[in-house]
Amino acid sequence: MKRLALLTVCALCVAGSALAQKFAFVDTEYLMKNIPLYESATQQLEQSSKKWQKEVDALNTEAQTMYKDYQSNMVYLSDEQKKEQEQAIVAKETEAKELKRKYFGSDGELFKKKESLMKPIYDELYNALKDLSETKGYTAIWDRATGMILFVNPSIDISDDILTKMGYAK
What we know:
3 strands, 3-stranded mixed beta sheet, 170 residues
């Protein structure tokens, strides 16, 4: 009987502490749709992307035209002329690939532009989440759109406790 009473008290304590936690959800897609600066930044990125893609496409088209001309005139060309035209075609294809990498690569212009335009918006969103979390006492805030946790109160981080338990304390 004492054991049952003790288990009941422990269960109520655990349930009480779980109820003390406050969680919130946000929808970042909805938030972004209602931030005018985000829409403006998205349009700028789209315009730049289209402009740069046209440049890359123009070079690719030029390389394809050079190749078709080469194929149709190949029988009339000397070996040296063939070699020169082949090298020119390869150079044009390489130029197109390099331009595409410059604009759309992992460290390309589009990435840099997106970072410069979006970072202030994301920083503002994070700061608003953090301030609201502190004001309203939220332990964590989840994003409904992505399922990711956007903010967690650092007071509930037990990483150092885990390291201590494992013997790796600082």
